[in-house]
């Protein structure tokens, strides 16, 4: 929440955040710096020549080149450490697929809804775009979003880059099910994609009637191919693979279909002799995005920043520790705080030059608190690796200012 | 607001929005359509070949090519009719400049704050990024955002495309003024840009201490060159030119500087013998974005969509008329409704095939109601053309389904 300073506070210096930028001496504007004529020319160059004409599509500055980080052949991570706010640029949204990104013709591709419905129907993209629309901002996260082999020299992108946020627009699935009608015995539906993996998941009908959406727009324009063009299933707060991309078919049924992606994969063996299936909701999580590896800090003020989110609803609190977990302070949350959405947290911190560890801990509206690694292992065992690893993460600050991931081996 | 259907409602068909897609008969899934082997191959092609591998930067689908529309050499408009939700993709954000887009080196460019301050200071981009950050979603609009020569065959982009919305991140100007301190007599500051126009505006200090921001990030990443890279002044709700791009200098003073852009330009001659200077706040406005030219409607259900916004705060209501202004209905507003931000409105409408006119009218939290063209001219006269033309706009629906802008000559 923005701290608003009154004129009086500024004039009398009582704002309480004076000296925030004491990190390095700012060049006083009236210091006796001699500028060479060459430097003056450089500084004035932009005022002496016509700039670029208007264009049909903008470009990034040549001085900025954010990139996703491809991971084997199956994913690419968002550069969390380079981003601000809560929206992920569409071309930096993480990817995860099992057989590459298909090219689908929006004039040929259709969504079929059939099975235990009154009236099976097919919908084209044009049909979906004409129907009553809904828009919401929410995150998507891969359930395997923690690099369990990460060493010290690991960026947030490399550690946990398989999560991004967009403003999604589409048609509520309940609207479509209202067109087809649903038979009384129905309890589940299969969602199937048109990629070469033909990824399929069984979804409880209750979620389909709740906040499920068939999304065709991402950050204001057509959804991107890597995110499912021409449309995908969007299940706010649920693990990434259930948000089936390149959606082609929904088959309504009275039972789950027990596909490969919910039996062989994406189930969590527990400490007991049982496995948890359909562990679909992404539990509360937070990650510091700055300062992290490869930042180098100077003594003095900086702002600790990060993202927190929960598939169960809103984040209500994020605690940050600057002393390895001994004491915790509440970070500020950037409003408006949305349900099932990346929430930006910040905490001003004055580093005194001694080595320490930075941690963040999220609390969501259900009261759930992001667990420590020890709590996670004790409660679930190690069999559920590498899914749903939402434990607290640490960043070491060395006395020379280098920041490193506080890596701990998992097995 | 999303209408949530219960299982009971769907099963008993009592949702009340049945038949929304009665516009054309959907292909029933069990109809006796014979598919040729060739068509089957086409439909299955995406499941039989590996798709694209993960990439560092995503691309739009080849089937989607949204574009800005350059206007002479001084602007380009956002394709409002092709967009959804409220976020404008960064490379489609409108442009407006007076001498082209400069290329600035973030390692050389600095922001100087001087004048009636205790301590003049210069800030680099790195300094600004290290300071306490704030993030907000808000619109920017050019004060001249209405094409007064538009004829019938005019898209929203051509009519009114000089408005866009981003999630902006930066440092609050009040934080910077706290570093410099401000002298007791100060009441204004000059904001000056580093482009070849060296555009400069005088801003009341009160706005600088309120919600003014030095913005360096746009939709999560570095601000774009066309929007002011490496940083700009952001004054939520104020006319576009005051949000000085490529910001290089703020000079604090006790009086306005009376620059060209606030005397020769951007002042509004009134019906009296007086002119209004510093007409900085963008009044409430709305525009239908669909259906508009060049849509062609079919009889039956469609969804009327548009955007509404106000520089004075939140939109509280948008009324839509489907009969040329005789009767008005409240449209649904997509939440969360934010202050000084584009708000998406929607209204389901069943077209009966007869010619008519569609209108939208915004109301903001101050109680201000978007005026008719007649009201605007009667109260302000025509001398203020072409600035701040925020009147109600109409779209003609012909009986053959063609939609055209309901153009009216201004002079």
From TrEMBL, chains A, B:
Keywords noted in UniProt: Metal-binding, Molybdenum, Oxidoreductase
Identify the residues that the record assigns to the Moybdenum cofactor oxidoreductase dimerisation domain, covering every copy.
281-388
> What span is annotated as the signal peptide, if there is one?
none
Family matches, as InterPro entries? Ig_E-set, MoCF_OxRdtse_dimer, Mopterin_OxRdtase_euk, OxRdtase_Mopterin-bd_dom, OxRdtase_Mopterin-bd_sf, Sulfite_DH_SoxC, TAT_signal
This protein's record includes keyword Nucleotide-binding: no
Query: Per UniProt, what is one Pfam family of this protein?
Result: Oxidored_molyb
GO BP of this protein: sulfur compound metabolic process
User: GO: which molecular function terms?
Assistant: heme binding; molybdenum ion binding; molybdopterin cofactor binding; sulfite oxidase activity
Task: Indicate the segments forming the Oxidoreductase molybdopterin-binding domain, all copies.
Answer: 98-258
Q: Which cofactor does it need?
A: Mo-molybdopterin
Q: Give the domain of life.
A: Bacteria
Q: What is this protein called?
A: Oxidoreductase, molybdopterin binding protein
Species of origin: marine gamma proteobacterium HTCC2143
């Amino acid at each position: 929440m923005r701290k608003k300073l009154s004129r009086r506070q500024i004039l009398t210096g009582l704002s309480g955040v004076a000296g925030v930028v004491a990190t390095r001496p700012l060049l006083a504007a009236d210091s006796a710096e001699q500028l060479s004529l060459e430097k003056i020319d450089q500084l004035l160059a932009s005022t002496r020549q016509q700039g670029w004409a208007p264009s049909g599509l903008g470009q990034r500055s040549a001085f900025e080149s954010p990139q996703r980080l491809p991971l084997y052949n199956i994913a690419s991570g968002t550069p969390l450490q380079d981003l601000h706010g809560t929206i992920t640029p569409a071309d930096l949204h993480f990817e995860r697929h099992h057989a590459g990104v298909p090219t689908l013709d929006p004039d040929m591709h259709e969504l079929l809804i059939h099975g235990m419905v009154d009236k099976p129907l097919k919908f084209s993209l044009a049909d979906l775009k004409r129907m009553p629309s809904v828009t919401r901002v929410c995150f998507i996260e891969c359930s395997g979003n923690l690099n369990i082999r990460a060493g010290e020299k690991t960026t947030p992108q490399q550690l946990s880059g398989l999560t991004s946020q967009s403003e999604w627009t589409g048609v509520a699935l309940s609207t479509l099910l209202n067109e087809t009608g649903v038979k009384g015995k129905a309890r589940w539906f299969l969602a199937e994609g048109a990629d070469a993996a033909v990824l399929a998941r069984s979804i409880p009908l209750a979620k389909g009637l709740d906040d499920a959406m068939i999304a065709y727009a991402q950050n204001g324009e057509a959804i991107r191919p890597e995110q499912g063009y021409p449309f995908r299933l969007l299940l706010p707060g649920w693990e990434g693979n259930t948000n089936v991309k390149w959606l082609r078919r929904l088959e309504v049924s009275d039972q789950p279909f027990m596909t490969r992606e919910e039996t062989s994969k994406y189930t969590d063996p527990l400490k007991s002799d049982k496995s948890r299936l359909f562990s679909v909701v992404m539990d509360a999580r937070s990650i510091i995005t700055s300062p992290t590896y490869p930042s180098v800090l100077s003594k003095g003020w900086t702002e600790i920043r990060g993202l927190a989110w929960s598939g169960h609803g809103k984040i209500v609190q994020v605690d940050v520790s600057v002393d390895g977990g001994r004491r915790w302070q509440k970070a500020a949350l950037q409003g408006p705080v949305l349900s099932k959405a990346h929430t930006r947290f910040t905490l001003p911190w004055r580093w005194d030059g001694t080595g320490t560890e930075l941690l963040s801990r999220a609390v969501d509206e259900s009261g759930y608190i992001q667990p420590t690694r020890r709590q996670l292992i004790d409660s679930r065992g190690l069999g559920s690796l590498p899914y749903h690893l939402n434990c607290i993460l640490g960043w070491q600050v060395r006395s020379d200012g280098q920041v490193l991931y506080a890596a701990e081996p998992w097995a």
